[in-house]
Protein 1
Amino acid sequence: MKGDPISHLPFVTRLTAQSLVNGVRKVIAPFYEMRRDMIGTAGMPLYEHTFIARQDLSNTQAEGLIEHFSTVLADNGGKVLEHEYWGVKTMAYKINKNRKGHYAYLRTDAPAAAVQEMERLMRLHEDVMRVLTIKVDAHEDGPSVQMQKRDERDSRRERR
């Protein structure tokens, strides 16, 4: 057969070529199933975003940034599953002459294009100093580690 790329080889018959293709399909199929399970039920990837805003903003302005970027994500086909405002924290080193910053955390389910647009707008926004986005396989249940630490500190203070 002229169109078959491996039929001209003397040791490969049509039957062995087809069995080779079927064998490869059997090996690869479980990986496609795993990938489909990792993406999630909605078919969109899951992300975690953390950003730091300038320290001279008020708490309501910092929480307003969370709402603003949540609407940007929603307008582009994504959704924010959960968000947390971590408060003002001291940074390890100065960023733009700031020693402290407002930290915020978002768990999202969004297409890549929506995440890229949100990150682009965050980087252009004058109040946002740093952005970190991580693609995850699944979101953990409950509050983030930062919020758990805060709860532990509060419970220790109450015991005193």
Note: Strands lie at 46-54, 79-95, 98-109, 128-136.
Protein 2
Amino acid sequence: MSLVTTDSNGNTPLSPEEIQGLIPSLSTKQELNEWEWENILSAREWATATRMTIPELVSDSYVRKLHFRMFDQTWKWAGQYRKSEKNIGIPCQQIRESLAVLCGDVLFWIEKQIYPPDEIAVRFHYRLVAIHPFPNGNGRHARLMADLLLSNLGHTPLTWGAKDLIKRGEARTQYLDALREADAGKMQPLLEFARS
């Protein structure tokens, strides 16, 4: 299977310029997934060992820093907001402003205890995915951001279906269906999936 894929199963297609940003010499999607997984594991270790306040975590700079750490060995554009339109997400010119609004909302939800902690994390995840700030890796990044937020709030991270959400399969289908339900204003399926 080629790195350049027309697979529309929830994957964000990369532009030719974005594909040229690949750092390692890989030839298949499977090799890319494995390489990214190692990069992400390293970032997860770094992130869980780093102590910070909630406002530091829920910030534009940390959103970019975490994406950079997750993909810095994979993509030259790691940690940089996308500059092209995708099949998902807001117009790229609105990313910074939308992220600032999201971060403010999350801090407000926490301060005023608007939702339980796991629902705050899932809503944070959902809005990050909807904004889709990066060329690739948005779902994985948003799930890790949600888990880090919960950990910093003193709660257990979510299980996200306890399956690999990158590969095609029932868990990925359930996840994408739950995101579509959230698009329609129904958060419960995504909350249930995140806890399953």
Note: The radius of gyration is 16 Å.
